[in-house]
User: Fold this.
Amino acid sequence: MEKANSKRMDLNRIICLMCSHFLSNMLHIVRCAKILSITLLLSILPLLHGYTDSGPSPPKHSVTNYQAEGKRLFTQGKYKEAIEVWSRQLEADPGNVKALVSIGIAHHELGNYQVALEYHNKALAIDPQFAHPYYSRGRAYLSLKNYESAERDFKKAIELKWNLPNSYYNLLLVYKNMKDCEKAELVLVKLRDLKTFVKEGEQGLIGCYLSSGRGDKAVELLAEALNTGDPEARGYAIRKLGETKHPNAVDPLIRVLIREHSYPAAYALADIGAPAIKPLEKAMRSEDREVRRVALTALDKMSDPRATNSLILELRDEDPGLRSLSASALGRKQDPRALGPLGEALRDEDPTVRKWAVKSLGDIRSTGNHPVEAILSLLRDADKDVRISSIESLGKLQDVRAVEPLIGIVKDSDIQVRRRVMTALGQIRNERAVEPLLALLRDEDPVLRMGAVDALGEIGDARAVEPAIALLGDQDTNVRQSAAEALGKIRDSRSVDPLIRTLQKDTWVKPQAAKALGEIRDVRAVEPLIAALQTYHPIRERFNRKLVRSFPTHGEGSVVAFLAMAPFASMFKDNAPNIRENACRALGKLKDPRAVQPLVEALKDKEFMVRKSAADALIEINDPKTADHLAPLLKHEGSETRNSAMRVLKWFTEERPNM
Assistant:
């Protein structure tokens, strides 16, 4: 019994201790809550300060802060935002002339010159002795080409000592535009005294001389600039001396060319033209090789035909490098007088000279007598580059005398030579090359097979059709591609079915087969091409372009007969806009009135080029009923569609001569 009572007493003590601990914690929490409430109240009180029953009071913002903030935005190019800040400054201080001028300057930068004038006028109405608005208003007048008012304002700014370098420089620009060079000279003296904007002022004065037809005075000033140590100023002077095209500019430029081997001076002399030829010929006789090289460059760049004689003489220079440059330059001149001297240069001891001489002979497209026999002799030259250049020139000249010699070197040991021979034979397009080329189609070298079939395609002889068809099964991909392209160029109907099979089965030759089928224009290719559009997406656009050419223009086989077919109709809904665009162009070329309705629907397309192509096609078809189909589109919700429809309607309603 005593033990039971003892246990109850212990339990009561434990419960009392727990209650005491709980109450102590609760009191602590209450005290913390009070402290937190007081803290929150103290933090909120500052925020409540300034609020009234009518709402919050605006934050205070000093005039200085407005000006600084506006300037910060202005320097960042945020002119509209700066105007907003300075406008608030004016609300706070309506008579603030700095704010007025600042807003005017910002409007000037935005191109609002008339608005800028208004603000500067307001500033001057408040303070006529404030210099800044005179300067800024002068700039606005200058931009508006009101030169008399600009002159008056810049003079006033100078009188009030406002930013003298800028004020004088802008005054010089005024006189430049007024073409009053004497006054511009006086202002330049002031800039030189200030030692600022001197280079810019001199350039302005030069512009004044040039615009007023006083090139001699401009040359004098530019020639002085050539003696300065400023590379930028000297470069400007050289360029401008060339632009003057004045004879007086030749001597200072020649001196720079000789002294510095200056290519910019050479280009400037080339711009001057005929007056510079004699001095350049004299420079060509210099013992300094670099002087001769730069002078030759000037003659090369010169468009005057009299420069050709000087270049011909340079073919005899002791330096092979300069002889090569001269030979190359003569090719660009396109002057038949150079044919004979270049023919002689083919015997030059230096292979580089021979190479450039034969290249230039191929480049000169004239009716003159090209030294073909001399070029043929280079086909056996020891230098590979010379041989290649001679082959290329023979191809450009398309002289039949070259056929047999070219066939004779068709198996040259160098692959580049072999390729050039095939290309040249294709360019000459002579049937005498057909049989030798056909024989090469059976050669074990794929490069020869490919080159031969390419050349046969260019020649276009029907004898090549069956052998080229056989090459569609060649093991070499490049050969098969070349064979397909060649068949497209020959355009023989016998190749249609083999090309269709290639289109369907040979992934690597699909683009070439599609192109060839389009060039042959056989209706049998239509359905295979449409199927290819659906199954070989990467070349879908190319297939679609060739599809246009594979249809006859009229009759039952017309492309419009396929409009009802799902594959063709779906082209207008294709995800690729180029497909829709090309389909529109195709229908325009076919000129069938049954295509009008689908094209009108295409005017609703979201892509601009599709809409444009549809409009062009409708104009090309020129069906008088088109206007009836277009009428509903004038009320279409899309402005682009309405504009496209209006463009077509305008074409139909305009009067034009009978075609």
User: Anything to note?
Assistant: The two ends are 134 Å apart (CA to CA). The domain at 398-490 is CATH 1.25.10.10 (Leucine-rich Repeat Variant).
